Amino acid sequence: MKYYMALLFLSCPLITKTSDIWKAAHNGDNDRIEQLLKDGVGVVNARCSTDFMQGVPLYYAAQRGHASTLQLLLSRGENIDRDGIVALQCAVFAGQEEAAEFLLNNGTRLNAINSGHFNPLHYAVWEQKGNKLVPMILAYAQRSGCLNRLLSQESTDIRSTDSESGGFGIYGEPKTPLGIAQIEGNQAMIELLSDPQKIDEAIQRYRIERDKKILQEMLDRNGITTVQYLNLRK
Fold first, then answer.
1. Crossing angle of helices 67-75/30-39, nearest 10°?
2. What is the DSSP code (8-state) at residue 12?
3. Which CA distances in Å does 132 have to 14, 77, 92?
4. More confident residue, 2 or 5
5. Where are the domains positioned within the chain?
6. Residues in contact with 123: Cβ distance below 8 Å, sequence separation at least 6, in sequence order
7. What are the backbone angles phi and psi of residue 116, rounded to the nearest 5°?
8. Distance from C-alpha of 43 to C-alpha of 40, rounded to nearest angstrom
9. Count of CB atoms within 10 A of residue 55's CB?
10. In b/e form, how buried is each residue of 156-190, taking b as 16+ CB within 10 angstroms?
11. For the chain, what percentages of helix, strand and coil (3-state, to nearest 5) are there?
12. Dihedral sign from CA coordinates of 100, 101, 103, 109
């Protein structure tokens, strides 16, 4: 899947010119998706013929960060084992933390790779949108037992958007996520990925922040303020 993520982004203007399920997924229009499926004119895992990458709705929803649309598509029969891998890579490539986390929580295999041997950590480091995504991916990888594999996995076809030609330049040899960070000159990522202790610390920080977020969401749903919660715990 050479150039896959970049081509998927370039195809988005084509998607928005359609009136079908792919545009609805791109826009996060859940009502429209429901109507198309009800009318029998939308197929939840259909390939888009107007897009040269022929993506499925799940890809476009992930790229745009529409977690509720991802949930809808999965509830209507989309296959997470078949299409979740690329959808996760789309979300990571676009820096969509919520969508990426949703896909991981719903069974997307984190250690899966595409034909260029990209894994999600490659994308997060490569695009330098990984301030939150990299710790999240590391945490989920540790939990699923594939952390070392993700860190050591070498791509076979890493390309840079910073090439002198203005297009996608080839780095020339397989690269681990750390190798990509070194070529990109991302010092913070180099320091993180080259130090197991810092990796553990980043994972712990992510988990603490995630637990805080979950707690706050629960309090908000129940109309409880932080002060009230603290008083209840006394």
1. 20
2. H
3. 30, 30, 10
4. 5
5. 1-109, 116-234
6. 5, 89, 92, 93
7. -95, 5
8. 7
9. 27
10. ebbbeeeeeeeebeebeeebbbbbbbbebebeebb
11. 60, 0, 35
12. positive
Asked if 122 contacts 113 with a C-beta cutoff of 8 angstroms, the reply is: no
Both tokens assigned to 187:
């010092």
**Residue the block writes with tokens 């997470």:** 80
Residue with tokens 């984190």: 110
In CATH, what number does 1-109 get?
1.25.40.20
CA distances (Å), origin 35, targets 8, 20, 42, 177: 25, 11, 8, 42
Question: Which of 92, 102, 184 has the alpha carbon at shortest distance from 130?
Answer: 92
Tell me, rounded to whole angstroms, the distance of Cα 213 from its chain centroid.
19
Q: Distance (Å, rounded) from C-alpha 181 to C-alpha 204? A: 22
- The answer to whether the pTM exceeds 0.85 is no
Tens-place pLDDT, residues 84-137: 888 898 898 888 999 999 999 998 888 776 656 778 888 888 765 556 799 999
Buried b (16+ CB within 10 A) or exposed e, 108-122: bbbbbbbebebbbbb
Question: How many CB atoms are located within 10 Å of the residue 94 CB?
Answer: 21
Structure tokens at 16: 């928005």
